[in-house]
């Protein structure tokens, strides 16, 4: 691989966009759900579990006993419904942001491509411009170090 090809590979990588990550996460979640739908029964049979051992599933108006659900169960159902609504709203918002980011990214990409085309269309000078080397700074001789003060070699009287 030549240096030019290697440079193109390095220039092409600029990081992962959040939209791509979100799409990959949604794709992974949906493929996991599809795989569980196809292979879940097989896995349960290999583990020795049956569908009857799982928690029973009920429709919105159907309960296992003749007694109506108590207040705690109703509160949990309402909390679950509110949580589903919040999750749905957050997903809608995330998708709107993703679409907005993609539109902005496309517009910026088109603008950069247009500018690159204009730069390429600019006339090149026929003779390269000679650059003068920077002037060499004249060096000053190093300053002489100050002489240390002489100390009295005679011992001091106490």
Structural class estimated from helices and strands: mainly alpha
Please state the oligomeric state of the protein chains shown: single chain
The beta-strand count equals 0
Main sheet? none
Q: Gyration radius, to the nearest Å?
A: 38 Å
SS element count, helices: 3
Q: What portion of residues is helical?
A: 55-70%
Q: What share of residues are in beta strands?
A: under 5%
Shape: elongated
Arithmetic mean of pLDDT: 75
Low-confidence stretches: none
What gap, in angstroms, lies between the N and C termini? 83 Å
Element string (H = helix, E = strand):
HHH
Outline the structure in words.
The chain has 3 helices and no strands. It is an all-alpha fold and 158 residues long. Among the domains are: 16-54; 88-118. The radius of gyration is 38 Å and the shape is elongated. The termini are far apart.
Primary descriptors:
mainly alpha; 158 residues; 58% helix
Helices and strands, with pairings:
Layout: H1 3-12, H2 18-47, H3 71-121
């Amino acid at each position: 691989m030549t240096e030019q090809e290697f440079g193109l590979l390095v220039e092409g990588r600029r990081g992962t966009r959040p939209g791509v990550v979100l799409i990959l996460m949604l794709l992974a979640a949906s493929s996991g759900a599809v795989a569980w739908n196809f292979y879940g029964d097989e896995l349960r049979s290999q583990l020795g579990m049956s569908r009857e051992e799982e928690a029973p599933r009920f429709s919105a108006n159907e309960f296992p006993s003749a007694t109506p659900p108590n207040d705690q169960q109703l509160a949990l159902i309402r909390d679950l419904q509110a949580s589903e609504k919040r999750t749905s709203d957050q997903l809608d918002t995330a998708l709107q942001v993703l679409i907005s980011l993609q539109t902005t990214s496309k517009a910026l990409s088109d603008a950069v491509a247009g500018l690159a085309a204009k730069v390429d269309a600019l006339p090149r000078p026929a003779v390269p411009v000679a650059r003068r080397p920077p002037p060499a700074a004249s060096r000053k001789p190093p300053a002489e170090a100050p002489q240390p003060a002489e100390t009295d070699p005679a011992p001091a009287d106490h």
